[in-house]
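Good morning,

Attaching, inline, the backbone tokens for the sequence recovery test we're adding to the shared suite. The designed sequence is right after.
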């Protein structure tokens, strides 16, 4: 995200047009009291009735001109603010997408949504309507003071005394509101997070009958949000009456002192009429000072929040001159890889060599670091120790784009977008994937049967996160999505845990046909990894056993214990069948 002035300076020519239209419009506003002066002094005072039609026509021309140039001013500022907000939202979203997972680990989704939407909207207002009025206040006030001085220097002292008082009030109010707006922005992000989490996990909430608790949780933040907005209102209403008193009192004082000057014949009645009209016109800029400082303070607070995100940097750095592999084979190597978070080891001394086209099975207890290995492989994180290589090249030397495009991943937590089944399946190869290839991927993933039963088949729109589909159906679509990518490396992170045994068997039988693809299979079921070329067993964040299925069974270690836990009853039953009951 660039500095704010860089976004504004890009559209300087539109600001020039807008300022021209504004200056002409305000200039026409200044002519109206002059015409009023002529009507009072010349037509009414001196009886020059022949001038009236011309002066009335001039008022009409001034009104039409104000409409034309006022429209040009409004349109130009709206265009500028729309362009700037679109560019800021685009840049901040692209920047967020470029950040590594550690940013998302510490930042709530609701907060990010609040920054991208609400805070950019406040800047939209500031660079459009609010900035337009601030500039107009300056031009308008300068011109009015110029014409007031030409009419009567003594009377001009009245607005000159009132204006610094109003400006001081506006500055005091803006400073008090600045902290309030920051707190409102933070609480708005928290409120979004609470609502987003509750709606995303609505089934869990209902399953545990937690509706009342979640409502109270939301209401507590909603109350805090209300209190902050009331605090803002209290600051506003504390100072705003002073603006109103000054602006209402100014025309009255002008009439009183100006009337005395008319009686003394120091000014004409037309001059007093024109000056009073100028006093009425100078009132609204003073009234606007409070509101403008209010809106500007909000935009400044939002800009600080956006700048905080913009200052975040990804800990995953891409090489300045990355190595580009012509043809990725899929040979993967971990050399003494280690990783720790907050001084706690997550992985220790992980080493293995997986030739292209071979299959590696990974097993271990929950929390032993199985999924973390895949995150390192995709460079969601970088290891603290050791090296990870793809086709003999350190993954840190490859471009992130080529590295991640070379892998197709079936996540443990299946995520489907609110789109058609077809669009979800071709996510990794959206531009070139043909319809028949999508159908083949669905067939390989054993998903064709249930997809074809849907009213619109693969063009059926599924809900957010695949709502309406069973866990097994979502997993099969996720497998189809990975297969359709046709990447040289396939990664399955507990990818068949929601499938029945028969469907799981069919899926693995199909995957055995992909001989030229490197496969990494993380699983808790022996059936998923038993045919792998090598199996590694993790415990306490390091490899404690490795070998083929048969070799690990012979060791009678942790893998053997897992095997017996899953198949022990079946083996015992097959070795000791129940005695046949005698028939009487």
């Amino acid at each position: 995200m660039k500095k704010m002035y860089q976004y504004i300076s890009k559209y300087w020519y539109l600001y020039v047009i807008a300022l021209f239209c504004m200056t002409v419009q305000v200039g026409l506003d200044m002519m109206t009291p002059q015409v009023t002066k002529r009507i009072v002094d010349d037509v009414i005072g001196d009886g020059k009735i022949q001038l009236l039609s011309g002066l009335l026509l001039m008022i009409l021309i001034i009104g039409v001109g104000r409409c034309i140039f006022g429209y040009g001013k409004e349109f130009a500022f709206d265009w500028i603010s729309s362009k700037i907000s679109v560019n800021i939202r685009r840049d901040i979203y692209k920047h967020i997408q470029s950040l590594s997972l550690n940013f998302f680990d510490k930042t709530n989704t609701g907060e990010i949504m609040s920054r991208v939407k609400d805070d950019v909207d406040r800047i939209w207002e500031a660079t459009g309507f609010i900035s337009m009025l601030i500039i107009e206040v300056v031009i308008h006030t300068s011109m009015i003071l110029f014409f007031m001085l030409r009419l009567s220097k003594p009377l001009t002292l009245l607005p000159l005394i009132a204006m610094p008082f109003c400006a001081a009030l506006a500055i005091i109010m803006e400073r008090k509101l600045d902290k309030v707006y920051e707190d409102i922005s933070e609480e708005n992000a928290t409120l979004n997070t609470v609502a987003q989490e509750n709606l995303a996990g609505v089934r869990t909430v209902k399953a545990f009958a937690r509706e009342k608790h979640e409502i109270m949780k939301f209401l507590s933040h909603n109350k805090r949000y209300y209190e902050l907005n009331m605090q803002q209102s209290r600051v506003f209403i504390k100072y705003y009456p002073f603006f109103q008193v000054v602006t209402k009192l100014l025309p009255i004082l002008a009439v009183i002192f100006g009337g005395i000057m008319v009686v003394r014949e120091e000014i004409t009645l037309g001059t007093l009429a024109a000056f009073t009209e100028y006093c009425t016109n100078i009132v609204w800029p003073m009234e606007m000072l409070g509101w403008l400082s209010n809106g500007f303070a909000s935009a400044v607070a939002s800009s600080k929040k956006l700048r905080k995100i913009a200052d975040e940097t990804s800990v995953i750095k891409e090489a300045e001159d990355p190595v580009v592999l012509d043809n990725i084979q899929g040979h993967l190597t971990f050399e003494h890889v280690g990783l720790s978070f907050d001084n706690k080891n997550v992985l220790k001394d992980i080493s293995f060599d997986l030739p292209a086209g071979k299959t590696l099975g990974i097993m271990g207890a929950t929390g032993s670091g199985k999924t973390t290995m895949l995150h390192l492989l995709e460079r969601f994180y970088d290891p603290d120790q050791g090296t990870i290589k793809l086709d003999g090249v350190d993954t840190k030397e490859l471009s992130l784009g080529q590295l991640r495009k070379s892998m197709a991943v079936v996540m443990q937590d299946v995520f489907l977008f609110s789109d058609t089944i077809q669009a979800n399946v071709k996510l990794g190869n959206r531009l070139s994937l043909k319809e028949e290839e999508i159908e083949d991927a669905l067939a390989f993933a054993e998903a064709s049967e249930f997809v074809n039963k849907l009213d619109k088949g693969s063009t059926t729109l599924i809900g957010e996160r695949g709502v309406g589909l069973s866990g097994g159906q979502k997993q099969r679509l996720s497998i189809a999505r990975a297969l359709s990518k046709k990447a040289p490396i396939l990664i399955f992170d507990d990818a068949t845990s929601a499938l029945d045994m028969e469907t799981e068997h069919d899926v693995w039988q199909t995957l055995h046909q992909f001989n030229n693809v490197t496969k990494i299979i993380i699983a808790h079921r022996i059936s998923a990894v038993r045919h792998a070329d090598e199996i590694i067993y993790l415990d306490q964040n390091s490899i404690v056993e490795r070998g083929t299925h048969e070799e690990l069974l012979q060791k009678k270690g942790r893998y053997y214990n897992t095997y017996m836990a899953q198949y022990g009853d079946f083996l015992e039953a097959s070795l000791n069948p129940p005695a046949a009951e005698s028939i009487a």
